[in-house]
Write a structure and sequence with these properties.
By secondary structure, the chain is an alpha/beta fold. About 35% of the residues lie in helices and about 25% in strands. The chain is globular.
Length: about 550
Amino acid sequence: MGSKSSRVRDAAFSLKTLIESGIVRPYGPRKLTGIVTSLTKWGTAPAGGFRALAKRDPDGVAIIDERGELTFGELHRRTNALARGLRERGVKEGDGVAVMCRNHRGFIEASIAINKLGADVLYLNTAFAGPQLVEVVDREAPRVVVYDEEFAGLLEGVQVEDRVIAWTDGEAGDDTIDGLIRRAASSDDLDPPKRSSRTIILTSGTTGTPKGAPRPQGGIPAAVSLLSRMPLKAGWRCHIAAPLFHTWGFAHYQLAMLLGTTMVLTRKFDPENALQLMEDHDCDSIVVIPVMLQRILALPEDRLDAHRLPRLKAVASSGSALPGDLPTRWMDRYGDNLYSIYGSTEVAWASIATPQDLREAPGTAGGIPHATVVKILDPDGKELPVGESGRIFVANDLQFEGYTGGGHKEVVDGLMSTGDVGRFDPDGRLYVEGRDDEMIVSGGENVFPKEVEDCIAKLDGVAEVAAIGVDDDDYGKRLRAFVVRADGADVSDDDVKGWVKQNLARYKVPREIVFLDELPRNATGKVLKRELAEVEAP
């Protein structure tokens, strides 16, 4: 009985959320028939979702990038033609196609066309080094790679049967997306494949070779979960600045097919250009990783004052924690529109901090979204009470299926480990204290780098900071902090240590402070601590 009533409540909540967001709304008989037919034949994966949009709003703008605008109708016809072109090049159901593209229409078109063929898409990180790229492609064995021409040198050692260029600054030849579309016999609809496509997103690879993590296609449950704590609306214009190949950027590409979002894209992020794009295209939202917000707020005051962004309603940040007082500084300037999402490639989103959360409880990862369960477990897999720290485990409909190369995240009673340690406060807000493999024991006390990083980040004159554990004769382990000074700042070693001593326990004061011009980061903004471990202290 309880199970049935919970399903009824879930359905009612989902319908309410879909109506409020504008995904569900009244349509005329002809449009409704076209939408239902599309979703019945193709499902809610990108092939079906964007096909339905083409029936519902063919003249609506789907993409704005450096080449101009593309409507939903044009996107549908072009991806039909591209799918035919890829099929002529030998791509069939069940094949793998790798995509190594920056944020532009080619990424979207390739993804939809591959989906229409029932092939699997593997997203490659645009910041890969050559050897890492070769290792991943050898392991995943895609048949074709679709790539931006700028990556041709990196791909020289990669063994694939065929290659297609997604973006070139020169003339579009026969081996480009535009060339395949131009030569296709037809842009009419294809027959749906018998097999559903898989989407493989790679882990961040901050500690080793990235792993392939197949993800569910998303659809309605994923959208309801996210929209339950982040009020995005149908028809908005969204600047997706986060990389599309990353879980967070990819999530908003999938949301776009439900919300009818206009995706505003640019191949490379520039902080002032991002502000200008949002003004020029009247963007209602922006999708970022935290370092992008840091770079925006590091602009000179006169440049920030020149871009007020009165239309901006939602800033969706994920990929890593928001450092120090960044949330407050952003909201004090641009309004209470910042949402911080905590999760991982393997579990998608586990918690969402609203502007109210970030105001009332700085440092929180927020509350738990709809249809998600988060528990804090001890080493024996038993749930810990509120306030006690332990390993974070998550259950939802978005979990990955296991790594393509073998292996899986630890699972306890259907809950999957995120690899982090955290706790809940009495108000049900989650706090993430750090990676479970980064904790050190200093003088018999547990110390997480994140707490010390957050403390140092609040010191005037500090732009960025990261910390790692190192051996110490007196304490067993201590932290070494790597600090990037703000422009013109003259922060010293003693300033940093004195600040930590003033705000945290003595054993949390870093043993050494190393000043750097910048922190090593991957394309999704995560600090590469394995590289910091190789930096010698002064």
